[in-house]
């Protein structure tokens, strides 16, 4: 047939052939339109919303949806791996596409874990999974948002309670029911319920692997910073790839860590499983182990099994090692780019080695779930609601001042570390008082430390680590972030004082209208030229005499209630104290509890040293561990 003039040939043909030609041409046109629309249409058809409340009535029930995805119907007739991953991605139901307004939620049975349910989210035979309860809703939404922003849509979330399942469904997040019936509140690290969650993870892995898919399993308290799937694909022979708690680099590039040099625990917060016979055998034995003894922590059990046999190397190049039963091929993800809370927040190992991090897991921290959330906020990788950046009453910030000798001079020791921290702590104490008086949210300053904090005795920083001294340490190294954010009775501790992280103004999510509503306050010496209450310079800077009391502060700043940000030039000598002595006593009761411990002195029991918010009121105060267990208590 002459394709350059098909219509002329059709006109000269018999009616039967005319019909055939017309049918073929129409089919070609419609096929072309479909292909081009599939290639160039956006998979994201809705905007992201972090709101935790369900967007429709979660009490509504209906029959399970009978509409199966095109992907499921295609895979029913053949091998899923035969499909082009790009085509698979187009066939996935887009994440963040919320159910139609007025629709009813399907029956819970339709959310039961099955091969068909998982298959609907698989691309390239890989699925990325996390799980949790409603208390971690914001962590889960952050986890999902990071992945979808980098184009990873083959993900699933396991819901350990119905409240989370319903909330995620109404947000358009792929979710399945783990049938755990767990509490919706934060269970706390190390609690019996925490260990129950760990056992659920092991059962989940053992359930998914027989489906034949590769599984990238993650904890919810980690964040993806770069698409990990291309990296994982570099090691097709690996049965299991796992992160570790290694704090000393074994490689300086993006190769797998050298298994011979990794002495730290293998961390199961990030690990990838291929559905091989060896990995399925490991998962099955791991499940049987932890179900038989509820005292075994899931991570300890994994390490015990995998290290049962370790070595030799699989080959000279891949970095894989034979482990477990001698057949399982194991790889250790490099701690420099699959970061722990230490290699990311303390060492910034990836920066020293000029590498791009793939992930950060909020381990090595000291303030529970609130501390994890605050660390991610400091790193500007946590997604918050818009109102987080524009709190009621406005924000209070200040420019901290640190003398060079405290920061840089002398040896890095316990004495110089506490001298540096105490100097900053006194300024923060004043800032907390001013924030309390003005009913504003305090933006905490960056906190400088000379020494690291751990759970055991150490010489100041870990030998072989890339920690530079001094360094900006996470807030939970000194402050009890969980206590600062905890509801405390007003009659004993006075009003609560909200805080924000020191990077909040650098965060791209900070609205411009907040940063534009700004008042600079310059402290001045009373009696000096132009230094008087309510004195404002031509540049719009408010001059405020040092040693201002509670009532004067309230009077002066009552005129600026509509200003969203007030920044003090300094907090040294800014506040002369509360007029109301009852309020002052309650404030002191509150902030005394805001600071924690430094840990730990080597070869001393107990080895920790308590920070003291009012160290300057105790002549001769010295940083030292308790002399005995009887003396081992906070300074209040």
UniProtKB/TrEMBL annotation:
<keyword id="KW-0812">Transmembrane</keyword>
<dbReference type="Pfam" id="PF03407">
    <property type="entry name" value="Nucleotid_trans"/>
</dbReference>
<dbReference type="GO" id="GO:0052636">
    <property type="term" value="F:arabinosyltransferase activity"/>
</dbReference>
<feature type="transmembrane region" description="Helical">
    <location>
        <begin position="20"/>
        <end position="40"/>
    </location>
</feature>
<dbReference type="GO" id="GO:0005794">
    <property type="term" value="C:Golgi apparatus"/>
</dbReference>
<protein>
    <submittedName>
        <fullName>Arabinosyltransferase xeg113</fullName>
    </submittedName>
</protein>
<feature type="domain" description="Nucleotide-diphospho-sugar transferase">
    <location>
        <begin position="152"/>
        <end position="376"/>
    </location>
</feature>
<dbReference type="InterPro" id="IPR005069">
    <property type="entry name" value="Nucl-diP-sugar_transferase"/>
</dbReference>
<dbReference type="InterPro" id="IPR053250">
    <property type="entry name" value="Glycosyltransferase_77"/>
</dbReference>
<feature type="transmembrane region" description="Helical">
    <location>
        <begin position="122"/>
        <end position="144"/>
    </location>
</feature>
<keyword id="KW-0472">Membrane</keyword>
<keyword id="KW-1133">Transmembrane helix</keyword>
<dbReference type="GO" id="GO:0052325">
    <property type="term" value="P:cell wall pectin biosynthetic process"/>
</dbReference>
């Amino acid at each position: 047939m002459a394709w350059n003039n098909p219509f002329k040939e059709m006109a000269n043909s018999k009616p039967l052939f005319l019909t055939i030609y017309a049918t073929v041409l129409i089919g070609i046109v419609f096929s072309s339109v479909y292909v081009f629309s599939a290639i160039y249409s956006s998979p994201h058809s809705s905007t992201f919303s972090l709101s935790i409340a369900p967007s429709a009535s979660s009490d509504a029930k209906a029959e399970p949806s009978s509409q199966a995805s095109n992907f499921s119907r295609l895979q029913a007739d053949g091998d899923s791996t035969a499909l082009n991953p790009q085509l698979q991605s187009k066939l996935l139901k887009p994440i963040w596409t919320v159910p139609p307004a007025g629709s009813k939620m399907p029956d819970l049975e339709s959310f039961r874990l099955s091969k068909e349910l998982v298959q609907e989210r698989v691309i390239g035979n890989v699925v990325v999974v996390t799980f949790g309860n409603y208390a971690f809703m914001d962590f889960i939404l952050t986890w999902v948002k990071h992945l979808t922003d980098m184009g990873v849509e083959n993900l699933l979330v396991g819901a350990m309670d119905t409240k989370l399942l319903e909330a995620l469904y109404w947000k358009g997040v792929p979710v399945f029911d783990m049938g755990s019936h767990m509490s919706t509140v934060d269970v706390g690290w190390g609690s019996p319920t925490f260990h129950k969650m760990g056992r659920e993870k092991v059962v989940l892995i053992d359930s998914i692997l027989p489906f034949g898919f590769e599984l990238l399993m993650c904890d919810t308290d980690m964040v993806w910073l770069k698409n990990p799937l291309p990296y994982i694909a570099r090691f097709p022979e690996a049965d299991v790839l796992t992160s570790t708690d290694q704090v000393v680099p074994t490689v300086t590039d993006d190769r797998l860590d050298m298994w011979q040099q990794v002495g730290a625990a293998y961390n199961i917060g990030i690990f990838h499983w291929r559905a091989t016979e060896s990995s399925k055998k490991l998962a099955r034995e791991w499940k049987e182990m932890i179900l038989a003894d509820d005292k075994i922590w899931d991570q300890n059990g994994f390490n015990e099994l995998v290290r049962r046999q370790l070595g030799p190397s699989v080959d000279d190049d891949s970095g894989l090692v034979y482990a477990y039963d001698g057949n399982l091929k194991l790889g250790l993800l490099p701690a420099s780019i699959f970061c722990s809370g230490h290699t990311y927040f303390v060492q910034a190992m990836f920066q020293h080695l000029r590498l791009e991090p793939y992930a950060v897991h909020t381990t090595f921290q000291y303030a529970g779930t609130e501390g994890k959330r605050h660390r991610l906020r400091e790193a500007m990788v946590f997604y918050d609601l818009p109102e987080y950046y524009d709190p009621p009453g406005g924000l209070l910030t200040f420019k901290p001042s640190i003398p060079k000798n405290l920061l840089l001079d002398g040896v890095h020791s316990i004495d110089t570390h506490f001298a540096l921290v105490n100097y900053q702590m006194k300024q923060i104490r004043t800032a907390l008082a001013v924030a309390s008086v003005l009913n504003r949210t305090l933006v905490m300053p960056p906190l400088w430390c000379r020494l690291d904090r751990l759970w055991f005795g150490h010489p100041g920083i870990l030998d072989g680590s890339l920690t530079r001294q001094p360094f900006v340490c996470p807030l939970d190294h000194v402050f009890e972030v969980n206590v600062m954010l905890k509801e405390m009775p007003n009659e004993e501790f006075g009003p609560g004082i909200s805080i924000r992280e020191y990077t909040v103004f650098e965060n791209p999510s900070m609205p411009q209208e907040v940063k534009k509503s700004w008042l600079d306050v310059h402290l001045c010496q009373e009696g000096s030229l132009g230094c008087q209450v309510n004195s404002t310079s031509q540049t719009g800077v408010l001059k405020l005499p040092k040693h201002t009391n509670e009532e004067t502060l309230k009077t002066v700043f009552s005129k600026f209630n509509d200003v969203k940000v007030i920044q003090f030039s300094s907090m040294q000598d800014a506040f002369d104290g509360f007029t109301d002595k009852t309020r002052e006593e309650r404030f002191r009761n509150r902030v005394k509890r805001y600071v924690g411990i430094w840990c730990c002195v080597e070869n001393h029991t107990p080895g920790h040293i308590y920070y003291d918010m009012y160290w300057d009121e105790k002549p001769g105060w010295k940083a030292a561990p308790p002399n005995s267990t009887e003396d081992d208590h906070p300074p209040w």
